[in-house]
Amino acid sequence: MEFRDLKKQYQVLKERMDKAVFEVMTDCNFISGRQVKELEEKLASYMGVKHCITCGNGTDALSMMLMAWGIGEGDAVFVPDFTFFATGEVVSFEGATPVFVDVDSDTFNMDPVSLEKAILAVKAEGRLNPRVVIPVDLFGLPADYDHINEIGHKYGMKVLEDAAQGFGGMYKGRRAGSLGDAATTSFFPAKPLGCYGDGGAIFTNDDQEAEYLRSIAVHGKGSFKYDNVRIGWNSRLDTIQAAILLVKFDAFIEYELEDVNKVAAWYTEALKGKVKTPVVPEGCYSSWAQYTIQVKNEEERTALQQKLKEQGIPTMVYYPKPMHEQTAYKDLKPYVPCSNTVSLCKTVVSLPLDPYKGEQTVRNISQFINDCCCY
Ligand SMILES: *Cc1c(COP(=O)(O)O)cnc(C)c1O
């Protein structure tokens, strides 16, 4: 069994996909072809955001947005302790300091109470300047934006939505990608909308920011490519990847997003009462980048993963280590306790999930988990 069945997806989309890729090869418009522009327009309109700027990957997208806001040395950027490394890494890469915030153990997302405590602790210390909050839409579920935006703005900060896993999710009628002051996403193959390699995008309503981002993505270009007005770098989405994404985006809005929600609902129904299933708060809609359950403790998780593996059922642990325990961050000062994160890292396990899984498959996996986890 595949953890996320990209092979099946390709078989279903093969005819359209092959045609789209061959077209790019025939036209040889490999960089900045018309498919890139078409994709940017479609995604911006899907999100309800004025500008979509595609780029090389989701990590570059985060970095470039921090560059656009002038984030650097002496600045504090608040990120969840429970996330993929890139969310904190980009902050350090820009010379600023990541401050790790605990998450809610039901939603896995940034806890607004912990956020405010961390901001106050940083302010009280007086060494760093609080500038940006990066909430992550973990596993496809949008974070608590009403509270996070309110807190962020109260302290004069910007909110950057890391929607790398959140593409397609919704919060109170608004799409992920439109929930902060700006947002980024990733098209890494296993994300809700993935390409066949690396890719990413930035979303903003601000014209000046958009212009700056388009400039730094192409060597700080000015009015044309060989007019360089600032120091930038090279981070673009390949035309082939844009062509692939156009095919996948159609499938995503036609049926994939709905279908993956069905698969998640089958799991929740079948696992109810046996393990802790993921919580989707009122007013939220998840795009289910992962279906993540919680078991009692680390021993039970190891045993469960082993037993499922023997049945040919793959599982993954996202994430086994809090950000503050990463070796790269061993010298960083903690501002708030992150006990929920510490405990989640020991008890979470993600199950096989994609829009192409059938009800019987989900029932079989769930049955097996229910037989294993008897407490
Ligand atoms: C995947 C991911 C990223 C980075 O995206 P890449 O395209 O792999 O660079 C950033 N943040 C989160 C939360 C992610 O899951």
Can you give me a brief rundown of this structure?
The protein has 375 residues and is α/β, with parallel strands linked by helices. The protein is built from eleven helices and twelve strands. α2 packs parallel to α8, α3 packs across α4 and α8 (239-271) crosses α11.
Structure, explained:
The protein has 375 residues and is α/β, with parallel strands linked by helices. It folds into 2 domains: 6-102 and 109-247, Type I PLP-dependent aspartate aminotransferase-like (Major domain) (Aspartate Aminotransferase, domain 2, 3-Layer(aba) Sandwich), CATH 3.40.640; 255-372, Aspartate Aminotransferase, domain 1, CATH 3.90.1150. 42% of the residues lie in helices and 13% in strands. It has 11 helices and 12 strands. This is DegT/DnrJ/EryC1/StrS family aminotransferase. Belongs to the DegT/DnrJ/EryC1 family. Keywords: Aminotransferase, Pyridoxal phosphate, Transferase. It holds the Pfam family DegT_DnrJ_EryC1.
Q: How many structural domains can be distinguished in the coordinates?
A: 2
Q: Could you name the CATH topology of the largest domain?
A: Aspartate Aminotransferase, domain 2
Bound molecules: pyridoxal-5'-phosphate
Measured as a percent range, the helix fraction is 40-55%
State the oligomer: single chain
Rg? 21 Å
Protein name: DegT/DnrJ/EryC1/StrS family aminotransferase
Family: Belongs to the DegT/DnrJ/EryC1 family.
InterPro entries: DegT/StrS_aminotransferase, PyrdxlP-dep_Trfase, PyrdxlP-dep_Trfase_major, PyrdxlP-dep_Trfase_small
GO molecular function: transaminase activity
